[in-house]
Structures are given as structure tokens and as C-alpha cells.
């Protein structure tokens, strides 16, 4: 049995990557990686599902032990991808999805270059503005700042393997699922065992 | 609108590549390339569907004009892939499937390196022997010769991009269709226009 595949999914806030990933893990046999953070849980968040909530001391100890595939500090809080949990699943032959911003994705690319990098895009900036405004949780200034941040994020796209435009959710899920299925058929992921088996049989 | 994609499908006789390609063209918006040959039509074969049946003189004239993506002589007959028909469709933005043996596929790789190369494998040599024997059209000697030829063909597999094992027809069709869908999402096929559009919109 081969090692599972690590799919790294990024995209601007409002592009719908969270919804797509949730749909994918329901439809394909694949696990979603859970991040670790030092921030406090919000209402409705569950330890081990939303995040692994740990103390700053625990987080820093794990950093020292090289226990993260990547981590970052955002204002006062740390966020990271626990290495062991991802690697255990991959070694067991299971695929893993990692939802992460481009900066984090680029760190993963260094620590795990075999990952498959997928960028989810909104259909247009106009539609993204509509989606962000529709949430009513952000001021006009905040929305404009997010749109500028989005352009910066999009500039990373050429470092990714695939790009999926989320103009229609069903189609975007199907395209993302197709990418994940197709990657298992790549010859570059190893066919030597297969060829050896055919030769033995003749 | 971008150019369509050329999918080159190979695999040993009995692996089921013909059945898979027929299913794909029914399910996806994709054309099957029709080969040109100098051999006579057999019962049930239609000009323009099974093959384009032409005279040897017409075929040789087309060779001189550089009118083939690849061609080969098998015993007394010529077989080739007419360049113009494939290119017209690709330029019009349509995907094209080309079903061809590995020698032909390698020539296509030289003349059209942007093609996507897919190899269809039988589940095992034992199963392939069963399928070939089941056809009852070939002697035991012929079956053995085919199995040896198959091993030679399989040695080309590492020159291909993808490999699909046809153990279950439905799954093999779905895997092949996923490859074809996924290739449209590859960043390497060009995202500059897309990025420019997002930038203009802000």
C-alpha cells in the first residue's frame, strides 16, 4: 500500500474553500487536518474538531521539538499544523486535506514538497465583494482591505499545482474531487511495483 | 477561450481502452480522433467513424505535405493521425482523445508535447489472458505472443503522465474522466489572463 496524498488547499476568505473541503471529506475517503492554536475557543468550537486548543507553553514546546509542518504567529496567538498527526495518516495510506493560507502553504511546500497544492478562487472580485459585504460582520473599510489582501494572495497562485474557480459550488466540488482522484493515477507517484507484478505473472 | 486538451490513450489489447474511450466521449464534452488508413474497410466499418479509408496515393501525398501527427506502416497498410482534424478541434477549444499504441504515442509526444498521456492497464496478466482467450478469435500461440507484446508495451509506461488500472469498468471510466477534468485546472496551463482580470476588477 502506498502512502496517502497531502492536498494543501488555499484561497482568499469568501472564495468558499471551507465549504468545498467539508463537501469533499463527506464524498471522498479523506481526512481534514486540524490545526493547533493558543487562542481561546469561541462559542461552538470543539477541541480536536475546530482546532486543538493548547497553552502557549505547550505550543512553544512543540516548536522546539520540531513538531509542526508549519506554524505562524498572528497578533498574540500561535497557529500551527501538527506534523505527527498528518504524517501518521499519510503513512497509514490515508489522504489528508490541509486548509491553509498561501504563506503557510509555501512553508508546507518546503517541508513536504510531495504535497499537491490547490488554489480556490472566487468567480470575480465583484462577487467576492458581494459575498464579504453580505456577511455584514465587516465594515466597508475592512472589506476593501480584504480585497487588497486577496490580490496579494492571488499573486501566489503560480506556485500552486491547480486552480479551481468557485463560480458554481457543485462544479467546484466536482473539479476539486477530480483533482484528488486524478493525482492517485499519476505515473510519477510510482508504478515500479505494478510493472514488476505484471512481469512476474507472465 | 483557451485551446482544448489532447489526451493520448494507450494500453494493451484487452485492457479495455476502447470501451473506456467510448464511455468518456458519451459522458464528457470531448471528441475522438479518427485515424486514416489504406487498408480496406471490414464489414460494419464506416468511413469517417471507424477510420478514414483512403488510397495509398492519397496517404503518401498527405505524408509529403506533413499532414500527419504520426503515421506507421503495419505490414502492407498505412495508419496515421491526420494533423489538421485534430488541430482544428483543439484550436476551437475542444478536447480530443487519441487512442493509439505506445510507439505512436511517443511520436505524438514529440510533435505535440502538450498532450496528456494516459496508459490503461488490465488488472493482471492472468485476467488479460482470460479476456484474450475469451474472445475465441485467437489461438493459444497468438495469445501468448500478445502477452509478451503487452510486457513490451508496459515498459513504455514511465513515459506517460497517468496510469489507470481497469479492474472495474465504472471505476476506470471515472478515474479517466477525473484525469481529463483535473487537467483543465492545472495552473501550468495558464492563469495569467485570470489573474489580470481579478486585478482589473479591484
Set down the secondary structure blueprint.
Two copies of one chain form a homodimer.
Chain A: E1 6-10, H1 17-27, E2 30-32, E3 36-37, E4 52-53, H2 56-64, E5 68-74, E6 77-82, H3 83-91, E7 95-99, H4 102-111, E8 116-121, H5 125-134, H6 140-154, E9 162-165, H7 169-183, H8 192-201
Parallel strand pairs in A: 1-7, 1-8, 2-7, 3-4, 8-9
Antiparallel strand pairs in A: 3-6, 5-6
Helix pairs in contact in A: 1-7, 5-6
What does this 3D model show about the protein?
Two copies of one chain form a homodimer. The first copy, chain A, has 202 residues and is of the alpha/beta class. Chain A has a single domain (6-201), classed as Rossmann fold (3-Layer(aba) Sandwich). Helices cover 44% and strands 20% of the residues of chain A. The first copy, chain A, contains eight helices and nine strands. Chain A has helices at residues 17-27, 56-64, 83-91, 102-111, 125-134, 140-154, 169-183, 192-201, and strands at 6-10, 30-32, 36-37, 52-53, 68-74, 77-82, 95-99, 116-121, 162-165. In chain A, the strands form two sheets. The first copy, chain A, has a five-stranded parallel β-sheet with strand order 2-7-1-8-9, with helices on both faces. In chain A, strand 5 and strand 6 (77-82) form a beta hairpin. The first copy, chain A, is globular. The model of chain A has no long low-confidence stretch (mean pLDDT 90). The A-B interface holds A 118-119, 121, 124-126, 147-148, 150-151, 154-155, 157-158, 160-165, 174-175, 177-179, 181-188, 191, 194-195, 197-199, 201-202 and B 118-119, 121, 124-126, 147-148, 150-151, 154-155, 157-158, 160-165, 174-175, 177-179, 181-188, 191, 194-195, 197-199, 201-202.
